Structures are given as C-alpha cells and as structure tokens.
Amino acid sequence: QVQLVESGGGLVQPGGSLRLSCVAAGFIFRIYRMSWYRQSPGKERELVASIDSTSGNTNYADSVKGRFTISRDNAKNTVYLQMNRLKPEDTAVYYCYSGIGSWGKGTQVTVSS
Q1: What band does 101 get if pLDDT is binned at 50, 70 and 90?
Q2: What is the percent of the chain where pLDDT is above 90?
Q3: How many whole angstroms from its chain centre is CA 71?
Q4: In which element (H, E) is residue 36 found?
Q5: Using an 8 Å Cβ cutoff, are 86 and 63 in contact?
Q6: pLDDT for res 56
Q7: What is the sign of the dihedral through the CA atoms of 80, 20, 96 and 58?
C-alpha cells in the first residue's frame, strides 16, 4: 500500500531555513504529481506546493512563493521542500501527498524565537 514518510521538521527561528523530505513507497512514484500540504491547529489542511511527475512544473501557494522550493528525485522516490525565510505563520504539521492512498504522519515545523 501507499506509504509516505516525512522528515526534516523542527524548531527554527524566524528567518531560518529547513529542508523537508518525503520518502514514498507502494506506488509508481515517478508518474504521480506530488504535493506538500500543511495544517495548523484549528485550521484546514492547505496546499503549499506541488510538482508534476515528469515536466517538473511547480505551483506554490501565494503565501510561500519566493521562499519555498519543491523538488523531487524520482530515482530515490523522494520529494523535498526547501523552506527559506521562515515566518511564525509557517508553523504547522507538513505532509506530502501523492493524490492516492493514505497520508503520512507528517513532520512538525515550528518557527519561533
């Protein structure tokens, strides 16, 4: 079955950077568009960024444009999210998703001084 394991979260000061990773298994990773979502307490899960399977075309939420970069390595079945110039409002649990199957457990990102 679909397995997604996110990692790389942590506590970082405002203005800092983190790189999230998501290792996928149980499906043909290279043919699926991959996305990162985030969810803060009391808020709905929101789409942060997505990347096409082969073209590499990317899309970003307006709130993260110019600060976050999504990328993928199909040979490693891994999708990444490079997050720069982090803000307190970026605090959330971050999830990757393939559009099929189950969600992973996510990784907590906390931006605080």
Answers
A1: confident
A2: 91
A3: 10
A4: strand 34-39
A5: no
A6: 86
A7: negative
| Token code pair at residue 70 | 């999504």
* Residue-wise DSSP of 1-30: --EEEEE--EEE-TT--EEEEEEEESS-GG
Locate 27 and state its tokens. 């499906």
CA angle 48, 49, 52 (to 5 degrees): 155
For residue 104, how many other CB atoms are within 10 A of its CB?
19
Residue whose token pair is 């709905």: 44
pLDDT in tens, 5-29: 999 999 999 999 999 999 999 999 9
Which residues make beta-bridge pairs with 108?
93
By the 8 A CB rule, do 19 and 82 touch? yes
Structure tokens at 94: 């971050």
Q: What is the pLDDT of residue 32?
A: 94
